[in-house]
Amino acid sequence: MYGKESELVMKAVVIEEFGGVEVLKLKDIEEPKPKPNEVIIAVSKTSLNFADIKNRTGKKAKGEFPLILGLDAAGIVVEVGEQVKSISVGQRVIAFPSNGSYTEYVVADEKLVFPIPDNMDMLTAAACPIVSFLSYALLKYLARIQEGESVLIHSASGGVGTTAIQLARIFGAKQIFGSVGNIEKAFIAIDAGADEVFTYENFVREVKERTDGQGVNVILDSVGGTVSEQSMNCLANYGRLIHFGNSSGKPGTFLTNQVHASCRSVLGFSLGTTRKERPEYLKHIADSVIRLISKGDLRIKIGHVFELSEISNAHALMENRMHSGKIIINVNDSIK
């Protein structure tokens, strides 16, 4: 099946040291073998996430070299471990692999493999896992968003931002604001459904003006630093600030007297930690977002598609913040 029985090696992009895009090398490596609770997937496509940049540069990655980067993949199951019950050979799936995803075959725990319907193409499927699972968890379970509430989404033009904007609307948000580092990207968030988009320099003033000085009920923050700190100045009483990333590279500081009297909350979330420690938490999320996507209610914005051999160009595009939407890496276009 896609050469799985006969081939002993596969193409993969590996790094053998931390550094710039030049450390990404396309090589032949040994194919993975599944443990009893794992499956092997022939990869059609994978996606690029900001965590990949941090892992490549050594700001986040742990483990021994050589390393294969990549967090998610879409493809077809070609082998299952003896204890696997819910996944079968031949199924079209999305997954969070345990051995990286910049490769022709990946291995993944059964609990982190999710079947996709026939009407979902592999391009959409590859764009889906990180941004849709994360956005759904943030709004539904962390923020506990209620119909009629207002939302501010930082980094609104990115993959998570444009997905969260759509989900906020689906969940009944009354006002949806976005913020961006470059106002020229504002139209991307507007196209996704944001009511208005501001910059990181003026969002506090603009949000307060549009909420009669009250602020918003929910803020999604993946930026950190001063953006996180300033967000408290436009978060309403009983509001929830969800912090799930640190793209600025700088921590933000919150004071206890900013939360108790106003009944506000600052909540943290990591999809990576959840995959490792509570993978069962993701099944309902997967079912929900896959259903929304297959019905056409949720659309993942895809900005760029690169071949696996062009992975350095893809990293450079994201690292220089020149992209919008998801960056997809095509591994094997024959896998549909």
Automatic annotation (TrEMBL):
Keywords: NADP, Oxidoreductase. The keyword Ribonucleoprotein does not apply. Residues 19-329 form the Enoyl reductase (ER) domain. One of its GO terms (molecular function) is zinc ion binding. The keyword Zinc-finger does not apply. Signal peptide: none annotated. CDD domains: QOR1. This is Quinone oxidoreductase. It comes from the Bacteria. Gene3D superfamilies: Medium-chain alcohol dehydrogenases, catalytic domain, NAD(P)-binding Rossmann-like Domain. SMART domains: PKS_ER. The gene is qor_3. One of its GO terms (cellular component) is cytosol.
